[in-house]
Each structure stands twice: as structure tokens, then as C-alpha cells.
Amino acid sequence: MTGWQDVLEEVVRTRRSALVGYACLFTADPTDAEDLVHEALARTFARHRNLPDTRSAEAYVRQAIRTTFLDTTRKQRSWRTHAHLFVATSTAPGPALATEAMIDVRAALAMLSPRERACVALRYFDDLTVADIARDLSLSTGAVKRYLSDGTAKLRTRLGPDVVTVERPGATHAPITHVTGRTDA
Amino acid sequence: MSRDLSSILRQYADDEYAAHAVTASDPSARFRTLVTTVQHRRTRRRSAVIGAAAAAAAVLVGGIVAADALTNAPAPLPAVPGPTMTSTLTPAPAPTVIPTPTATAVALPPVTVHAGLPEAQPMPPELWATTTAEWTMFAFNSNIRNEPLPTGGIWSGLPTVLYLVDPAGTVYEVPSPASVWDPMIDWLPGSSLIVTMDYGNERTAAKVVDLHTGQTLSVVDRTGPELELVDVSFVKDATQDVRLTESRSSSADPAQEEDYVTVMTATGSTVSRTGPITGSITLSPDGRRMIRTVGSEVHVSDVDGAHDLTMQRPYADKANSCWAPRWLDADRAIVTCFPHGIGDGTSNEVWVVPTDGGAPARVATGRSDDGLASWSADGRVSTLLSVDGDPAGTDELVQIGADGRTTVLRSLPTSTMERISDRLWLTAPSRTSGSTDYLAVDPMTGTTTPLFAVATEFADQYLISGRISLGA
Q1: What is the DSSP string of B69-102?
Q2: Stretch B457-462: mean pLDDT, rounded?
Q3: How far, CA to CA in Å, does B256 sit from each of A38, B27, B228, B294?
Q4: What is the mean predicted confidence (pLDDT) over A112-124?
Q5: Residue B386: which of B352, B421, B350 has the closest Cα?
Q6: B38 to chain A: which residues are within 8 Å by CB?
Q7: For residues B60 and B79, what is the distance between their CA atoms, to the nearest angstrom?
Q8: Which of B39, B160, B406, B415 is least surrounded, with the fewest CB atoms within 10 Å of its CB?
Q9: Above pLDDT 70, what percent of chain B?
């Protein structure tokens, strides 16, 4: 790997689906997640010039997914501006590919506000602390706790009252390969 | 038996991953599209990303301050590095005079005919001397070659074709012997000089090309992972000088950047070089001054650091409440603030801040600065504000008077907007089936002028570059 184009190609070829899976936690919609990943990749590689390998690039892209999602709720049009450059795709899985559990979780996440989804994803997927989430989202810790409380309550109404949240102390940075260690290709 | 939410979310992400892996589009096509997008943005990084980068830093700094405040209130503000710029001005060499092309007796060359290219007229060489800032030059670069088209057939590839459009909308094909494959970044009206930018792996290179003679007059090549040309344009001060902004980042920390601003003649002789400049900078429309954001402070100064003063900013007592400002016109900056947090943006505010240290004034709420170029004339300035919280995506072309009053000239669906550097265009389905119309927008009135139509199947296959000066 020598140049940003090599790293970008490798990320697109081997990690795009994993990144879309991660982005779905924020968007609750696979098509929007695809757009979000595209925008996060563009932002990452337009800004950072020293991305030595796929792993470090993916870490930047995951961070960009978080910030881009939040930025987009502020400014809904950021990646739509570039829609004319997109390659036409059909990314939403058909009914045969979508499991019942997957549809349930997707629908449950869709019930949450963007901030609630972001807080829930960062807390219960990325294992960030409340203080870290507050820093990342530029919110007070009190607001984060409220969004987490409201968000998990909404999720329980859809997923069932038996859903519990297990507090995991300590983790402050998300491992970059939560979704899976597999590669796309 | 209870279920852990973390496990549910991870299983869900894994399921979406697996589903996407089955249905994902061709990664090579996605990669090519991304490369085009990234190259576009690297070109425009100075105007479009500084705010985000600075704000990201502000979020981090503000977040640390906020976290400290929770445990150690009151927390001191983080130390703000002082200006560390140095000026290495060198004596200006004698200006290079490039002869203005004159009429010749040669026959007009044929125009390129292709369904994916605009219809054009041949261009007589003497036209160069008559061009003004009201003319537009743009280039069609085919960015996908030898690939299947979405609508069938094979993309056979095209050379870059350059066009000039006069104020009346007449399109001329530029008869250039030069093989200009790289995106054109700027053109100097009244001359046949353009500057292009080449992006390679860890390499950026700017070229000044005379389209009339086909000669490459100068090449500025930056190679290595830590060096990058980020912007280049003609100075447009009655000389043929070129201004380059380059950035040097640390391999240990890509966020640590130093910028340099160089003015050189068209043939490559250095006129002046300023730097290193710490912080995020944005140059004034004439390129002589800069707004520099360092931490929570915003400075305005000459590019060599002289006449530095601290600009006022809205909500100065509240960390992490505004994006970094950018120049609105020669005397004012525009900045988006979110005093109630980033949130959904519906309470965002747009402020105008005098660059002479004067007090900021709020000009809009529920809007955000689009971050693109502004256009000024007769004391008025037009700019684009995005309507926050609008899922359809809408920009408003807004005119801001000298008294700060705003007038909305027109609303623009962002899905139809194209930007070619500081020029604003719209696309719309043509009355002719299967074509897409390109319309130029007059930023001072909001009126549109049809320029040309392109077969829709080719419209997305082009990288269109160029620049219009609009009197800048």
C-alpha cells in the first residue's frame, strides 16, 4: 500500500459491507447507510493524507460515519448534493435476505430520533462511556443519559421488555472491527 | 430469559453486513466514483472543509473543556498557540508577459461531435483577447473509460474538451493542441492561460498551460505523503501570477497542518512565499488577507501575518458554538452558529462578522451557511444558505445588503444543483427527451440562463471543471 487510492480501493473492496452494517445502526435504513458510508469515505480520504493501511483508514471512516450522521441531521443535504456522482445501486436487501429479527431491530431503531439512535449505538455497540458520547456529540452528559433512557425505552416497546442493558465500564474507544473480522471479498 | 441490547445491536449490524455483502454493487465502480468525489473535494478543500475541520477541532477542544468543567470547574481554556508564521518574501521578478493571441489566417478547427458533449461553435483564435470575467470556461473530462454504461453500450472514452461560453450563452469549443487531461482549476480571462491540477498517489501537481500554443509554462510538483497542494488560482490583479496554497502535515498526526501561500509568475518564478501558517486558514476573495482559526480564536490578517487582529465572534463565551468563519466579501465573514448544540440544526443561526473587529450581526435562523463561494457587487453579496431540517434538501440563494438585511432571491432544490468551482449551475430535465439541461444561475438576481444540453446517459460520466470569475 503506498497511496490513498490503494487504501481506498482496499477499504471499498473488503470493508464496505461491514461499514454499511455499522452505519445501519445510525440510519436504520440500508440505503441511507450506503450513502452515509459513501460520504464518510469521501470525507475521510479528502481530508486525511496519511492513511497507511486499511485498518487505520477504517477507524477514521467509522469516526466519519458518526460525525457525518450527526452533521447530516443538522444539515440534511450534505451527501445528497453529490448524488449525481453516485453509481446507481440497489442495496436494500430483498425480503428473502432480511431476517425477521433484522427487520424488527431496524424498525425499532427507526422509532428513535437521530440523537437517540446515535447515543444508543455509541453506548451499546461501541461501548463508549456517557462522557465520551457527550464529547463526541457535543451534548451534556445529562442529555446523553436522557437520550439513552428514552431510546432504550422505545426499543423495548418494539423488541420486548426482556431487553436489558448491561453496563460495561471502562471502554472508551470503540474497537474498529466490532461487526465481524470477516472481509467482504 | 433476558436479552442484552448490545448483543442485539451487534447481531443486527452483522445481519445488515451479510445482507449488504450479497447485494452490494460492483466495488470497482464504487471505488471510481469515490476517487472522483475525493479529487473534487481535495480541490475545493480550502473553501468547503475548513469549517468542518476547524469545527471538529473545536468540538474536541470544547468537549475536553466541557468534560473538565464537570470535574474541575471552572476549567481554564486550552492554551491557544500564537501565530508562528514567517514571511519569506522575495523580490518580485519582472512580470512575465505572455503574448495575447491574435488573429491568424488558419482555418477554424472542427468541433468535436459526440452525443455526450454540448453542441459548440468553432472558436477563432482572436476571441481569446476579447474574453472577460463574464465569460465561462469549463472542461468535460470523461472520468470513466472503457466501461459498460448503465443504459447499455460501452463507454469508449473521450479526451478532455474545453469550452468557452460568452455572456450571451454562445458555446465555443476551445481549439487546444495541449492534452489537458487533468481537471482545470482556473482560467485567466482575457488570456489563453489555464491552470490544472493533477492528483496522483501522494503527489499533487499544478500546471500552467497556454491553450493557444499548447505549451506548459510551469509545473509545481509536490510529492510525498506530507505535502499537498490544496488550492491554486490566478491572482487576477492585472498580472498573470498564480497563487498556490500548499499544506504540510505531520505523519505522526495528520491533524497538525502548516500551510504556505505562494505567489508565482505564470512561468514559475516565485514572487512571494508566506508560511508556515498554523491553524485553519481561508483566504479573502483577493487572496491578500486570511481568516485563521486557531482553537477558539479567530484572527484576520494579511497573508504574511501583518496587521493581525482578533475577530469578534458570536457566542464567544460559549465553547463549541460556531463553525469556523469564511469570507463573505472583502470586508465581512459569514459563520454558522448552533448555540443550542448541533442537534437537528433547526435552531442554527447565520451571522455576519466584520473583519475589522466590529460586532457580529445575526442575519438568519434555521439556516446554515452552505460553505460555498459568495458573489458580491455594488455592496450587495449573494450566498447560499441551506434550510436546516429540510429532508428534501433545499438551499436558498440569499442576498445580504450592506445593512445586513437579507432577501431570498430563490429556493434551489439541492438535488439539481451543480457547482463548478465558484459558479452555480442547475440541471433540469430537458424538453428534449433523454437530455439534461445545464442552466447558469445569476447569483445577483437568481435568474437562470440555459447553457447547453447533454444526453442524460452521459451526464453522470463527466467530471466538469472550470471557473468563472464573476468580477472577482
Answers
A1: HHHHSSPPPPPPPPP---B---PPPPPP-PPPP-
A2: 58
A3: 25, 32, 13, 11
A4: 89
A5: B350
A6: 4, 8, 42, 45-46
A7: 14
A8: B415
A9: 64
Give yes or no for A25 touching B (CB within 8 A): yes
How far apart CA B45 and CA B413 sit, in angstroms, is 23
Q: Does residue B145 surpass a pLDDT of 60?
A: no
Average pLDDT of the segment spanning A100-107 = 87
**Cβ B245 vs Cβ B231: under 8 Å:** yes
Q: Cβ distance B441 to B426 under 8 Å?
A: yes
Q: Give the C-alpha separation, B46 to B52, whole Å.
A: 11
* pLDDT score of A79 more than 50: no
| Bridge partner list, B464 | B140
What letters, b where the CB count within 10 A reaches 16 and e where it falls short, cover B447-467?
ebeebbbbbbbbbbbbbbbbb
Instruction: Please state, in angstroms and rounded to a whole number, the distance separating the CA atoms of residues B108 and B121.
Output: 10
A4 interfacial to chain B (CB closer than 8 Å): yes
The mean predicted confidence, pLDDT, of chain B is: 72
Q: Is the peptide bond before A169 cis (omega within 30 degrees of 0)?
A: no
The grid cell for B191 is: 488570456
Burial label, B71 (beta-carbon count in 10 A; 0-12, 13-18, 19+): exposed
Looking at per-residue pLDDT, the higher value among B324 and B462 belongs to B324
Between A63 and B382, where is the model more confident? B382
- State the distance between the two ends of chain A, measured CA to CA, in whole angstroms: 17
Which cell numbers hold the place of A46? 479528502
Contact B1 A47 (CB under 8 A): no
B404 φψ region: left (φ > 0), alpha (ψ -120 to 50), beta (else): left
The rounded Cα B115 to chain-centroid distance in angstroms is 29
Res B94: pLDDT = 47
What is the structure's pLDDT at B305? Answer: 87
In this model, does residue B85 exceed pLDDT 80?
Answer: no
CB B155 within 8 A of CB B145: yes
Q: What is the pLDDT of residue B63?
A: 27
Given this model, what pLDDT does residue B426 score? Answer: 74
Q: With 60 as the cut, is the pLDDT of residue A91 above it?
A: no
Please identify which residue in the block is written with the cell numbers 488573429: B103
Start-to-end CA span in chain B (Å): 69
Please give the pLDDT value at position B200. Answer: 59
Please report the pLDDT score of residue B472 as a whole number.
29
Contact present, B371 and B348 (Cβ < 8 Å): no
Nearest alpha-carbon partner for B418 in B470, B375, B465: B465
Burial of B64 (0-12, 13-18, 19+ CB in 10 A): middle
- Strand pairing category for B3-4 and A163-164: parallel
The string of pLDDT tens digits covering residues A5-59 is 788 888 998 899 999 999 999 998 888 888 889 888 887 887 655 566 788 788 8
Portion 36-75 of B in contact with A at CB < 8 A: 36-38, 41-42, 45, 49, 52-53, 56, 59-60, 62-64, 66-67, 70
- Residues in B 93-152 with any Cβ partner in A closer than 8 A: 150
Instruction: Say if A170 is an interface residue toward chain B (CB within 8 Å).
Output: no
Q: How far is CA B438 from the centre of its chain?
A: 19
pLDDT of residue B284: 87
CB-closest option in B31, B414, B417 to A9: B31
Displacement of CA B399 from its chain's centroid (Å) = 20
